[in-house]
Protein backbone atom coordinates (compact mmCIF):
# COMPACT_ATOMS: atom_id res chain seq x y z
CA UNK A 1 0.00 0.00 0.00
CA UNK A 2 2.86 2.41 0.76
CA UNK A 3 4.16 1.99 -2.76
CA UNK A 4 0.80 3.06 -4.23
CA UNK A 5 0.24 5.92 -1.79
CA UNK A 6 3.39 7.89 -2.61
CA UNK A 7 2.72 8.15 -6.38
CA UNK A 8 -0.90 9.07 -5.70
CA UNK A 9 0.11 11.85 -3.30
CA UNK A 10 2.73 13.08 -5.77
CA UNK A 11 0.09 13.27 -8.51
CA UNK A 12 -2.33 15.18 -6.26
CA UNK A 13 0.37 17.67 -5.21
CA UNK A 14 1.48 18.19 -8.80
CA UNK A 15 -2.13 18.84 -9.83
CA UNK A 16 -2.50 21.42 -7.08
CA UNK A 17 0.68 23.23 -8.14
CA UNK A 18 -0.33 23.30 -11.80
CA UNK A 19 -3.86 24.43 -10.85
CA UNK A 20 -2.46 27.30 -8.80
CA UNK A 21 0.02 28.34 -11.48
CA UNK A 22 -2.58 29.00 -14.15
CA UNK A 23 -5.26 31.53 -13.12
CA UNK A 24 -8.76 30.46 -14.00
CA UNK A 25 -11.47 32.60 -15.53
CA UNK A 26 -13.12 32.64 -12.10
CA UNK A 27 -9.97 34.10 -10.56
CA UNK A 28 -9.88 36.84 -13.19
CA UNK A 29 -13.54 37.63 -12.45
CA UNK A 30 -12.35 38.73 -9.00
CA UNK A 31 -10.46 41.63 -10.57
CA UNK A 32 -11.57 45.19 -9.86
CA UNK A 33 -14.29 46.05 -12.39
CA UNK A 34 -13.26 48.41 -15.17
CA UNK A 35 -14.29 51.97 -14.40
CA UNK A 36 -14.64 51.35 -10.66
CA UNK A 37 -12.72 53.31 -8.06
CA UNK A 38 -10.15 51.30 -6.10
CA UNK A 39 -8.60 52.79 -2.98
CA UNK A 40 -6.87 51.97 0.24
CA UNK A 41 -6.97 53.76 3.55
CA UNK A 42 -3.78 53.08 5.46
CA UNK A 43 -4.00 53.71 9.21
CA UNK A 44 -1.71 53.36 12.18
CA UNK A 45 -3.69 52.44 15.28
CA UNK A 46 -2.43 52.47 18.87
CA UNK A 47 -1.37 48.82 19.40
CA UNK A 48 -2.84 48.91 22.91
CA UNK A 49 -6.25 49.83 21.46
CA UNK A 50 -6.31 47.88 18.19
CA UNK A 51 -8.82 45.27 19.41
CA UNK A 52 -11.29 47.98 20.46
CA UNK A 53 -10.75 49.81 17.17
CA UNK A 54 -11.35 46.67 15.11
CA UNK A 55 -14.52 45.89 17.07
CA UNK A 56 -15.87 49.35 16.19
CA UNK A 57 -14.88 48.97 12.54
CA UNK A 58 -16.36 45.47 12.22
CA UNK A 59 -19.59 46.73 13.75
CA UNK A 60 -19.66 49.66 11.29
CA UNK A 61 -18.68 47.63 8.20
CA UNK A 62 -22.23 46.52 7.22
CA UNK A 63 -23.33 50.19 7.04
CA UNK A 64 -20.33 50.96 4.83
CA UNK A 65 -21.06 48.01 2.54
CA UNK A 66 -24.71 49.08 2.27
CA UNK A 67 -23.86 52.59 1.04
CA UNK A 68 -24.78 53.40 -2.53
CA UNK A 69 -21.82 52.68 -4.80
CA UNK A 70 -19.85 50.50 -2.39
CA UNK A 71 -18.82 47.32 -4.19
CA UNK A 72 -16.29 46.08 -1.65
CA UNK A 73 -15.08 47.04 1.80
CA UNK A 74 -12.51 44.82 3.51
CA UNK A 75 -10.39 45.39 6.60
CA UNK A 76 -6.81 44.05 6.77
CA UNK A 77 -4.35 43.93 9.65
CA UNK A 78 -0.59 43.68 9.13
CA UNK A 79 0.62 40.26 10.35
CA UNK A 80 3.83 41.72 11.75
CA UNK A 81 2.44 45.04 13.02
CA UNK A 82 -1.12 44.67 14.36
CA UNK A 83 -1.47 48.45 14.69
CA UNK A 84 -1.15 48.80 10.90
CA UNK A 85 -4.68 48.56 9.51
CA UNK A 86 -5.64 48.91 5.85
CA UNK A 87 -9.10 49.32 4.38
CA UNK A 88 -9.40 47.94 0.85
CA UNK A 89 -12.35 49.50 -0.96
CA UNK A 90 -13.98 49.45 -4.38
CA UNK A 91 -16.63 52.04 -5.24
CA UNK A 92 -18.61 52.84 -8.37
CA UNK A 93 -17.24 56.40 -8.33
CA UNK A 94 -15.02 58.77 -6.39
CA UNK A 95 -18.05 61.00 -5.78
CA UNK A 96 -19.91 58.17 -4.02
CA UNK A 97 -16.90 57.35 -1.88
CA UNK A 98 -16.44 61.00 -0.97
CA UNK A 99 -20.14 61.27 -0.11
CA UNK A 100 -19.69 58.27 2.17
CA UNK A 101 -16.70 59.92 3.89
CA UNK A 102 -18.79 63.07 4.37
CA UNK A 103 -21.59 61.00 5.90
CA UNK A 104 -19.14 59.38 8.33
CA UNK A 105 -17.89 62.84 9.30
CA UNK A 106 -21.44 64.20 9.77
CA UNK A 107 -22.50 61.29 11.98
CA UNK A 108 -19.52 61.79 14.31
CA UNK A 109 -17.98 58.44 13.43
CA UNK A 110 -14.58 59.92 12.56
CA UNK A 111 -14.48 61.70 15.93
CA UNK A 112 -15.33 58.37 17.59
CA UNK A 113 -12.35 56.56 16.05
CA UNK A 114 -9.86 59.45 16.22
CA UNK A 115 -8.60 58.56 19.74
CA UNK A 116 -7.38 55.20 18.39
CA UNK A 117 -5.12 56.74 15.74
CA UNK A 118 -1.40 57.39 16.07
CA UNK A 119 1.12 58.99 13.70
CA UNK A 120 2.42 56.97 10.78
CA UNK A 121 -0.50 55.91 8.62
CA UNK A 122 -0.24 56.45 4.90
CA UNK A 123 -3.72 57.94 4.55
CA UNK A 124 -6.03 57.55 1.60
CA UNK A 125 -4.71 56.47 -1.81
CA UNK A 126 -6.75 56.28 -5.02
CA UNK A 127 -5.58 53.88 -7.73
CA UNK A 128 -6.18 53.62 -11.48
CA UNK A 129 -6.46 50.15 -12.92
CA UNK A 130 -4.00 49.57 -15.77
CA UNK A 131 -4.36 45.81 -16.29
CA UNK A 132 -6.39 42.89 -14.99
What does this structure look like?
With 132 residues, the chain is α+β, with helices and mostly antiparallel strands. It has one domain (30-127): Alpha-Beta Plaits, CATH 3.30.70.100. Helix content is 45%, strand content 22%. The longest helix has 20 residues, at 2-21. The chain is globular, with a radius of gyration of 20 Å. The termini are far apart. Residues 5-25 have low confidence and may be disordered.
Measured between the Cα atoms of the first and last residue, the distance is 46 Å
Anisotropy-based shape: globular
With strands numbered from the N-terminus, the spatial order across the biggest sheet is 2-3-1-4
What series of H and E elements makes up the topology?
HHEHEEHHE
Poorly predicted regions are 5-25
Sheet-strand content, in percent, reads 15-25%
The overall pLDDT average reads 82
CATH topology (level 3) name:
Alpha-Beta Plaits
Number of domains: 1
Number of strands: 4
Under the CATH scheme, the architecture is 2-Layer Sandwich
Tell me the name of the CATH class: Alpha Beta
Helix coverage percent = 40-55%
User: What Rg do the Cα atoms give?
Assistant: 20 Å
- Largest sheet, strands/sense/barrel: 4 strands, antiparallel
Structural class category: alpha+beta
* Count of runs of 4 or more consecutive helical residues: 5
Amino acid sequence: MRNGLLPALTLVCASLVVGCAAPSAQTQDLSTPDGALFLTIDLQVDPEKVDEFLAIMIEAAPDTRAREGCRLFDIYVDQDNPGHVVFYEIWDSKEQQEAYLGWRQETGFNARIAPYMVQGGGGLTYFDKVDG
